[in-house]
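Usage

Read records sequentially. Each one opens with the input sequence:
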Amino acid sequence: VVLRLGHRDDQAVTGSAAKVGGVSFSEEPATAAAGTPSHVHFDEKLHDSVVMVIPEPDGNFMVKVGFLKTQHKYEIVFTLPEVPSLGKDVSPAPVPNPHVRITDITPVPEGGLRVTCEYMAHQEGVLCEEVMLVSESQEDVCVGVKVHARVMDRHHGTPMLLEGVRCVGVELEYDSE
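and closes with the structure output:
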């Protein structure tokens, strides 16, 4: 195989594989036989299109909700794994967060809690808002949930929302003049 790049003959590359700009070319035929469809396999652990719930070492959780837009209100639904110390009767802590409000907590048959919350993306940047879930049956037992979002300016396109996130409203933009 001879691969020529540019205009000069001394740049010709010969051999069974040539590396050009980080791309390898090989004279080996494709491994799939002609007429046999090829398949792309993705790692089973890849969940790029769903809200991710990540347990933290301290017993709390981080919930990654992906890209959102400023001045937009979102409904976010996710399932926390079972936390035996919390029990089944769980409610949001009475300490309000102006940007995240839990609207529903429901035990799921498989174990764990399905949490629905409203999230107001109030400024651009990587934001982390925390809410607390408290046990109604065990005194002084609570779990923190950090909602982690990447918020882009409202004029910079439309993000693809993850499964479990939906836009439920837009705040009007007022001119100060």
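Summary fields computed downstream for this record:
- The radius of gyration is 25 Å.
- The chain has two domains: 1-29, 52-170.
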